[in-house]
Every structure is written in C-alpha cells, then in structure tokens.
C-alpha cells in the first residue's frame, strides 16, 4: 500500500514545532477522568479514566457498542460529555478550548468522503479547511495519496473507489494537515491483510520518528498488540484494564503457560503431567506439550517432576498470554459478573 | 482567513452540485418553462389575436391601476402588464426553487451521506460553515435567476416591443427586483433550509419540510411583490431592504444555535 521513498509531507515533528512556537507542551496528549455519557436511558460511558503520554500509539479495545466511537467523538469535541472531572486534550480543556485543539488533530471515524469529487479534491478540500494554502494542500494530498497507493486514481471520483481504497483515502485525509494527535476509529476495517499490515507499520513510523500520538480503536487484537505502546479495554462503561499490551495480558491472565519440549515427543505421559499439583491443562503440541499452571509458585515442582519423567527434556519456555486471550477473558468475566449481579438483584426482589 | 474558508466551503458545494447533472437538471428545467414558454406563448398569442378578443381579455384587468399603460393599444396594455407585473413573481419562485434544492442537498444531503461529520472535526468555525453553506446554495440561485432574467429581457424586447410600440423593459422596478430582492430571497430561503436541515436526518425530509414551510411564505411575498411594485421602485426597494435585515438576523441566529452534537447525533 505505501510505496517506498515517499516521505511524509513534512519533516518537522510536532514536538519540534511546539517547542519552536514556544507553546507549553503538555506531557499528556490526553487526560480523562470520570468521563460519563448516556444516550437517553442507555449509559454508554460511566467513569472512564485515561492518561496518554504524548508520542505513543494507544489502542482502545472493547466489544461492539462498548462506546469506543463515542469516546473518540467526545475527545474530538463533536459530542459533549455528561460529566467529567477532567477532560483535556493536548493540554486544552474540553469543551471550552476545543478551538485550540482542532487545528492539531486529525480524525478518521465512520464518515464518508465526497463521492462526487475526486480523491485529490477531497483531500485538498480538507487541507484548506485546516487553513493550508491551496498549493500546500495539493502538495500534501499528492504525497499522501501516493503513499497510500492511490496516486494513479487520485483524479477519479471517490464514488468509483473500492471499499478499501475509500478507507485508505479517509485515513490519508485524517493526516492531511500534519496533525500532532491522530484519532483512527477502526482504521483497518475493509483493508486487505497486507494493506492493514503496512498501515500499522506506517503508524508505527509516524509515531516513532515524528513523535505523533495515535489513538486507535480496533478489533484486530494481534495488530494492536504489535504496534500499541499502550492499550485500554473499554467494558461496561469503564476502562477495565490499561497498560502496555504485554502488561495488560499478564495482569488479566494470571496463569502461567509453559512449553515443554521432550525427545522423543511421544514419550511424554500426559496424564501423569496433568496429575501434578498446580497443573490445569496439558495440550499436546508437535515437540512435546503446552502445560498451563494455575500459579507461578507451581512452576519449580512441575518442572522437576517432568524432568524426572522418561525421555530427554530439551527445553522449557514460558509462553506469554496474548492480548487476545486477555481481552476475551476480561470481556467474558465482566459479562459473567454482570449476569450474576443481575440474578442477585432479581433474586432479592 | 475566514473569508477564504467560507469560499472553500461554498466552492466545494458548487463543484459537487455541478459534478453530475442530477442536482442541477431539475432546477434548470422549470425556470426555462417560466421564462421562455409562458412569455413567448402569451406574447405570440397577443400578436395573432383580433383587437376585439384582446379587448375582452384586458377588460377583466383594472388597467388604470398599472402605471405606464395609459396610451397603449389593448394588445400593448396586455403585453405590458403581463411582462412587467404578472411574470415578475416567477423571478422570486426561480431562486426559491434552486435554493431549496441546493441547500437541502448540501446540508441535509451531507448529513445523510455521512460527509458532514468529517468537516465538523476540522478547525472550521460554525460561522464559516453556516455562511459557506448558505453562499454555496444562494449564489447559484442568484446566478441562475440572472441568466433567466437575461433570456427573459431579450425575449420581451423582441416580442413585446412591437406590441407596446417602444422599448420599455426592464423597468426600474425590475432592477430592484434582480439586484436586491432576488439575492435577499435566495439567502432567506437557503437559511430556512439550513436551519431545518440541521435538525432533520434526511435530504428528503429537509426538502419536503422546506417545501411546506418556505413555499407558502414565498408565495405570500410573490403576491405582495406585484402589489408593492405598483407602489413604485422606492417602496419595492424598502421591501428588499427589510428582507436583507431579516436575512442578517436569521443567519446570526442560525450560527449561534448551531450545535455540532445535534448534527452528529441525529444521523445515528
Ligand atoms: N447518537 C446516539 N444516539 C443514541 N445512542 C447512541 C448514539 N451514539 C451511540 N449510541 C449508543 O452508544 C453505544 C456505544 O456506541 P459506540 O458507537 O460508541 O460503540 P463502539 O464501541 O464504537 O462499537 P463498535 O465496535 O460497534 O464500533 C451503543 O449502544 C450505541 O447504540
Ligand atoms: Mg465504533
């Protein structure tokens, strides 16, 4: 999707720019505390707390309808919060100082481009809305469309683009004015796997090399795990867990999983391993077995016991939990808790 | 800077509405009927009518009420009264139609097509957005009306002058109509539609609400316009200025009550 050798329209980094302008540059790109929002009877956000340092990639995860898009809309000032003890973006309080925030953010949500205009016209129009000169906007639009592999279609009406092409153009549009903070709401929806991967790499580069901050929502947990410096799981109106992806995964999945490699693999007596204290499951894998333990304390005894069994123990490695496992576990637990609460309330009546 | 943004928004709307014939075609056909078929039909009929038939026709009109018709033949009177007074109302209906269609398309249509939300994230001010949208619809309404006026003037001078006996069109009233009232009415109508559009979710409903609400108002103005024209260009100009004041007040009010949340939330 991104062609080599094309550089991002600007080589100034937002951080350098801010310093040059003598602005007070806040350490946090986003600070939110106690954010709540309902639509009619439905409480969507109920006390969201979030702090994002500048320059990272934040991934907001959560099931459908959890309120991710609503959160993005509130942070970008098109929806109001019902209440929030702190709601600050790029150092400015919302909603009062939203006008100071808008020039520095780029947003891609579930919106559309102008089908009747060309890709180039669409991007140039947005550049102009950010106050860029016509020449600058056109130059930036060319560079971005090239970067997203749409260079040869830029003079065609967007109505003729495929779904994935429209999505790329939307993301390009969010980047047109060189934003310091970029909100991408499910940016990889509709992209083919290769394009999705390249987009993730591009985001990674933009954040590492140019210090931009990204706020991304996505359902593709593997992708999020690979590029996010921080993730948060939105569930039942709150951020149920936040931190680096590995941290969140370890926090939510307390069990330890170790991969045992033995030779020959067939010699391992699985039922004997399963009978050991602290072992929850044993799953055969090609070279041996994957053993899940309920606590870390059980590790030494289990390893010693396996070592004493027939066959040669070639390796023991801890297999860290993935973000996806952690996420699924969290969401399920929350659902179970909710159902029980519901049942308890129902029973008390 | 703000002027630039207003123009950017207006120009984008113009480009979008001219990009396909779908939006402009219907609004171009009706004016054609108004400014070409009706006057040409009437003037040609008058030319071929016998003086007696023409007399019957004119006798139903209180010609003495219309200044400038005293010394004319009956055919001349009929031609003068219809082209100078009766058809004037068309030139308020034309900008109204064009403005309703374009404004509904640009504001409610953008909400419906989910393109407006993207604009709301940008640094565009409410003022620039609202004024840009109004200009983008009112400007073509005015331009189309002026083109129609050019065509109409040509036809009236070719077909009407022989009947009246001298060059008589456009009168001063018509200059007031074209320079003051047409722009004022275009802005008024566009502002009404934008106000409605910010509160409903689809192009269709904006169009029909605007149709129900705006057309009777305009017909009222049209009805009065002929009457006010009789009072002379001075009074007519006052009517135009009153409308300009109403426009300014309305625009300010739309801008102060403009709410991005309502635009975003009402199409979900
Ligand atoms: N304008 C609105 N009016 C009424 N309800 C709304 C509105 N906007 C959002 N909601 C409700 O708020 C909840 C959260 O919606 P939101 O779009 O934020 O979810 P999400 O986390 O982005 O979901 P998804 O993963 O499907 O994109 C949903 O129940 C939705 O129906
Ligand atoms: Mg969403």
UniProtKB/TrEMBL annotation, chain A:
<dbReference type="InterPro" id="IPR003593">
    <property type="entry name" value="AAA+_ATPase"/>
</dbReference>
<feature type="domain" description="ABC transporter">
    <location>
        <begin position="30"/>
        <end position="261"/>
    </location>
</feature>
<protein>
    <submittedName>
        <fullName>ABC-2 type transport system ATP-binding protein</fullName>
    </submittedName>
</protein>
<keyword id="KW-0067">ATP-binding</keyword>
<dbReference type="GO" id="GO:0016887">
    <property type="term" value="F:ATP hydrolysis activity"/>
</dbReference>
<dbReference type="GO" id="GO:0005524">
    <property type="term" value="F:ATP binding"/>
</dbReference>
<dbReference type="GO" id="GO:0005886">
    <property type="term" value="C:plasma membrane"/>
</dbReference>
<dbReference type="InterPro" id="IPR027417">
    <property type="entry name" value="P-loop_NTPase"/>
</dbReference>
<dbReference type="InterPro" id="IPR003439">
    <property type="entry name" value="ABC_transporter-like_ATP-bd"/>
</dbReference>
<keyword id="KW-0547">Nucleotide-binding</keyword>
<dbReference type="InterPro" id="IPR017871">
    <property type="entry name" value="ABC_transporter-like_CS"/>
</dbReference>
<dbReference type="Pfam" id="PF00005">
    <property type="entry name" value="ABC_tran"/>
</dbReference>
<comment type="similarity">
    <text>Belongs to the ABC transporter superfamily.</text>
</comment>
<dbReference type="GO" id="GO:0046677">
    <property type="term" value="P:response to antibiotic"/>
</dbReference>
<dbReference type="InterPro" id="IPR050763">
    <property type="entry name" value="ABC_transporter_ATP-binding"/>
</dbReference>
<keyword id="KW-0813">Transport</keyword>
<keyword id="KW-0046">Antibiotic resistance</keyword>
UniProtKB/TrEMBL annotation, chain B:
<feature type="transmembrane region" description="Helical">
    <location>
        <begin position="235"/>
        <end position="255"/>
    </location>
</feature>
<dbReference type="GO" id="GO:0005886">
    <property type="term" value="C:plasma membrane"/>
</dbReference>
<dbReference type="Pfam" id="PF12679">
    <property type="entry name" value="ABC2_membrane_2"/>
</dbReference>
<dbReference type="GO" id="GO:0140359">
    <property type="term" value="F:ABC-type transporter activity"/>
</dbReference>
<feature type="transmembrane region" description="Helical">
    <location>
        <begin position="84"/>
        <end position="107"/>
    </location>
</feature>
<keyword id="KW-0472">Membrane</keyword>
<keyword id="KW-1133">Transmembrane helix</keyword>
<keyword id="KW-0812">Transmembrane</keyword>
<feature type="transmembrane region" description="Helical">
    <location>
        <begin position="172"/>
        <end position="197"/>
    </location>
</feature>
<feature type="transmembrane region" description="Helical">
    <location>
        <begin position="128"/>
        <end position="152"/>
    </location>
</feature>
<feature type="transmembrane region" description="Helical">
    <location>
        <begin position="209"/>
        <end position="229"/>
    </location>
</feature>
<protein>
    <submittedName>
        <fullName>ABC-2 family transporter</fullName>
    </submittedName>
</protein>
<feature type="transmembrane region" description="Helical">
    <location>
        <begin position="23"/>
        <end position="46"/>
    </location>
</feature>
